[in-house]
Amino acid sequence: MPEARTPADIEADIVSRRRELAATLDEIAVRVHPSTIAGDAKAKAFGAVDRTVGRAYVAANRAVADVRSQFVDEEGAPRLERLIPAGLVAVAVVGGLLALSVRRRRR
């Protein structure tokens, strides 16, 4: 048989429940406060930007390493068989752009 509760026990339970409810309501008030919502949104946005920037950095680093490996061997010596043609192409492109620029200025 369950023990009979005294009025004092019931009153103590009511006081305890009121405190718990007050704490819960305070927590809800903090969570739904506009500054809390704005702060959470800012944190999520900054987190998304940080992840995106991190991924972009890794991708750029990988691309630079891939390009570098095309022009430098494992010991760090330049691969002239690839550098000379690339340099010639770069000179040709710059020369062509300069020629077009001069041609446009003359018109």
TrEMBL record:
Keywords assigned by UniProt, alphabetized: Membrane, Transmembrane, Transmembrane helix
Keyword Transmembrane: yes
Transmembrane segments: 83-102
InterPro entries, per the entry: DUF3618
Pfam family, one: DUF3618
Record protein name field: DUF3618 domain-containing protein
Annotated source species: Streptomyces nanshensis
